[in-house]
Amino acid sequence: MNEIEKFKEKLKDKGYKLTTQRRAILDVILENRDKHLSSEEIYDLVRLKYPEIGLATVYRTLQVFEELDIVYKLNFDDGRNRYELNHNENHQHHHLICLKCGAVIEMEGDLLE
Hints:
By secondary structure, the chain is α+β, with helices and mostly antiparallel strands. The protein is built from four helices and five strands; from the N terminus they run H-H-E-H-H-E-E-E-E. It has helices at residues 3-13, 20-31, 39-49, 55-67; strands spanning 37-38, 71-75, 81-85, 93-97, 104-108. The longest helix is centred in the middle third of the chain and has 13 residues, at 55-67. The N and C termini lie far apart (32 Å).
């Protein structure tokens, strides 16, 4: 089962459909899986293909995705929530953030165990 089908199944199990808007938002997250995008950045990227989509739709969709463990909401203390794809529920990692340039480095493994 590919990732899209896996996420579609998660949505279906909780009574949601993979609408055009949800698919567009999911596509942006998948295409930028190596980044930690804010909701506003996701909105800007989705609007390139779907200019009619609203910011409120992006917020609501991200909330649903978070509730279903499709994405993680992250707080890097920069005033914006950021989102990361949950591609493996058993995968654990941490984030190091450069205080000078804001670069984010992912550290594999559970450092707290």
